[in-house]
Amino acid sequence: MDPRSLQALIAGAAQGDHACFAKIYERTHTHLFGVAVRILGQGQAAEDVLQEAYVSIWKSAAGYRSEVDGQTIQPMTWLIAIVRNKALDAFRARARRKESELPESGDVDEEDSESTMAPAPSAMQLLEQATEALHIAGCMNALEGSHRQSLALAYYQGLSHSEVAAQMGAPLGLPGRAGGGGMRYTHPELLEHLASAYVLGTLAGGARRRFERLQRDRADVRVRVAQWEARLGQLAMSVPAHQPSPRVWAAIAARTQPAGTRHAPQGKAGWLGWLKPAGFGVGGLAAGVIAASAFFLAMPTLFMSSDQLAMRSGERLPQSYVGLLTDAQGNGKLLVSSLRHGKTMTVKVIGPITPPATGKLVLWAVPASGPAFSLGTVPTSGSAVSMLPDTSEKLLSKVGKLVVTLETEANPAKPGETVRQLRQAVVNRPARAVAVFFTVLLLAYLAICAALFVYQRSLIYFPQPKSGDAATTVHFQVKDAELAITTRQAAGPKAMVYFGGNAEDVSANLPSFSEAFPGHALYLLHYRGYGGSSGSPTEAALQSDALALFDHVSKTHADVTVVGRSLGSGVAVWVASQRPVSRLILVKPYNSLQELAAQRFPWFPISWLLVDKFESWKYAPKVTAPTLLIAAEHDEVIPAASTGKLHARFNKGTAALKMLPGTSHNTVSQHPQYLALFQSML
After folding, report:
1. Where are the stretches annotated Disordered (predicted)?
2. Residue 514 banded pLDDT, cuts 50, 70, 90
3. Are residues 410 and 476 in the same domain?
4. Do residue 607 and residue 653 come from a single domain?
5. Between 564 and which of 96, 285, 568, 607 could a Cys-Cys bridge form, CB atoms 3.0 to 4.6 Å apart?
6. From the centroid of its chain, how far is CA 628?
7. CB neighbour class for 381 (10 Å; exposed up to 12, middle 13-18, buried from 19)
8. Nearest residue to 534 via CA among 612, 498, 480
């Protein structure tokens, strides 16, 4: 992980650039979550700590210093310290809660206590657990044995100084106590112990506050603290990385991002990684409606009973009994319904009803044979639910009419005067209800399709601001737009042209690319609408701009490598199919965007609706340059099958596919072999 690139991102976050903050999360969250998991274990507590830590990072980014009194502070060291301190706070809070839940010592005798409490792990067991990740060469070699063991116990188990001493079976007294009990803060060994305890988090209470005051006053103390933070930063990097739930970033973003913006690490899970609304307007509404409707259609039993599904499938018996009562002009006044096997009936007023001056309105069921029976009173507004003495199936299966009468008796035995306002209604007419239902559903479906078509580009492209230095930016004029290009000039024939993802600030790659490829001139294209480029992004515009940039670069560089990541892989394949590129590198490539969308939402005619299809499979057979496809083992956005299908479309011997183990869509660029694979091609 390039420290300079991370420093630049922290500086951007300190200026309020949430895109830089999202990039920090993308590059570091698996490592930092691994630190939290190592202390708290996998689960909600570790995810809560990770969330709180990143909120703190966002708020305190301006406080990061790359150097303290001549001692270099690596950005990852600073980030790890924040996570670890919060994890230890949570660990101790949990321990205090557990302690408070134990019975008082007077309530449990010693024998019972020994039989119910699990034995404490030995010092050797704790040390074995704590040192499984202590394999970084030289990280701990400078420490003597007892100090090394106490460091491991404190760092990984979160033990206090006294707890470490108890587990080690020997006192770990701090040297340098004066006869009168005072501390000689000039003693180098004492300062070393205090600095390590402070960074480890085991220095607590008044001692910690005194040391913090000492740290503010003395540069040598600050240097020792910085040295220990650097050592422990190295140590933490050996902790296995863990992938937190996607909801962690969603919660962090909700607490940190400015109102009206949406920033996320590149490539959210599912096709929603491509459908990122550029605000909370109609585009966001359309995406929500699409997702909700798709879920309704995919899993109808969550919203409809088996009787309702039976009615949709055309069974002769309806799922409910429905009666529509109208006035003399045919205007609807009351809608009466009851599920076929239910014992409740709903009466809803759908047209104005004048309340009677005296008496009450009563609803009657009139069977084909036999006397009418009351179904209860009728509301004059709103709706009312009444209980039935039996199921609707038994009560209403032979009822063909409903009438409303005006009654003055409390419990009339038979219908009186039929209210002229309301005429009789025929029940058991599911066909009309079904027709209305499907008409409404069809109209909603067509409205969703229309919204998807109109707002699709605001759901595919998620423009990002540019975080790089203005000195590294040049402006390139094309026919109808001015494009921003982040560049690093270099003499010689070699150049690299880079096309990024749909939510990527490509300028963030410049530090790592500059270090990895010192002999290449670098050209990183900001799509239209991204990073200071004018215009709006479309597939046709991206293809045209990419060709123009390649043609411009190839005038001064004979050896041009084209790189495309995620969405940009479709742009890169297009360029390679149209121009004689020297090499083609595709990171997390897909067969086609249309295919990804259709797989996620098979209920919509994506092939008709989608304009920007990015069909890489069409252009792959035309590519003659040596090609490398880099895939993430656990890519949750672009399935491995899609990348594999694209690989198969290249001519035999042209393309190679490499899978980076243990990576996801967001973390592929963090793998140590990521840039090494680039270098193997170059």
Report:
1. 96-119
2. very high
3. no
4. yes
5. 568
6. 29
7. exposed
8. 480
The closest alpha carbon to 496, from 589, 567, 564, 568, belongs to 564
Give the global pTM. 0.44
Is 624 within the bounds of a domain?
A: yes
35 contacts 53 by C-beta, under 8 angstroms: no
> Do residues 55 and 25 touch, judged by C-beta distance below 8 A?
no
- Whether residues 494 and 410 fall in one domain: no
Residue 567, beta-bridge partner list? none
Alpha-carbon distance of 468 to 505, in angstroms, equals 9
Flag whether 170 is in a domain.
yes
Instruction: Output DSSP code: residue 62.
Output: G
Structural tokens at position 218: 């003395």
For 83, the domain range is 3-99+120-236
Q: CA 603 to CA 638: how far, in whole Å?
A: 20
Tell me how far apart the alpha carbons of residues 605 and 456 are, in angstroms, rounded to a whole number. 13
Which is more confident, 503 or 296? 503
* Alpha-carbon distance values, 589 to 198, 501, 562, 563, 600 (Å): 47, 10, 13, 11, 17
CATH number of the domain within which 555 lies: 3.40.50.1820
Residues 333, 221 share a domain: no
Q: Pull the structure tokens for residue 244.
A: 């937190």
Residues 78, 239: Cα–Cα separation, whole Å: 16
Choose one of 200, 217, 236: the last residue of a domain.
236
Place of tokens 């502070």: 73
Q: What string of DSSP letters covers 171-186?
A: --PPS-B-TTS-B-TT
For residues 638 and 649, what is the distance between their CA atoms, to the nearest angstrom?
A: 17
**Could you give the count of Cα atoms lying within 13 Å of 461 in the half-sphere of its Cβ?**
24
Tell me if 354 sits within 8 A of 381, measured CB to CB: no
Instruction: Tell me the two tokens of residue 618.
Output: 């069409």
**Tokens read off for 196:** 């390590």
Please spell the DSSP secondary structure of 440-463, one letter per residue. Answer: HHHHHHHHHHHHHHHHHHHHH---
Phi and psi angles of residue 486, each rounded to the nearest 5 degrees, phi first: -80, 125
Helices and strands counted in the chain (H then E): 24, 19
Q: Which of 427, 446, 481 is the last residue of a domain?
A: 427
Q: Could you report the per-residue pLDDT of 220-231, keeping only the tens digit for each?
A: 888 887 777 766
Q: Are residues 404 and 479 in the same domain?
A: no
Residue 416 forms part of a structural domain: yes
pLDDT of residue 540: 94
Any domain includes 359: yes
- What is the tens place of the pLDDT at every residue in 618-652? 999 999 999 999 999 988 899 989 999 999 999 99
Dihedral sign from CA coordinates of 44, 46, 52, 58: negative
Name the amino acid, one letter, at 446: L
* Whether residues 417 and 521 fall in one domain: no
> Which CATH number does the domain housing residue 351 bear?
2.60.40
- Distance of alpha carbon 570 from alpha carbon 282, whole angstroms: 27
Give pLDDT, residue 170: 46
Total tally of structural domains belonging to the chain: 3
Q: Which two tokens stand for residue 296?
A: 């309704």
- In a shared domain, residues 413 and 506: no
CATH at 42: 1.10.1740.10
- Is residue 519 domain-shared with residue 418, that is, in the same domain? no
Q: What stretches of 374-464 show up as alpha helix (H) in DSSP?
A: 392-396, 430-460
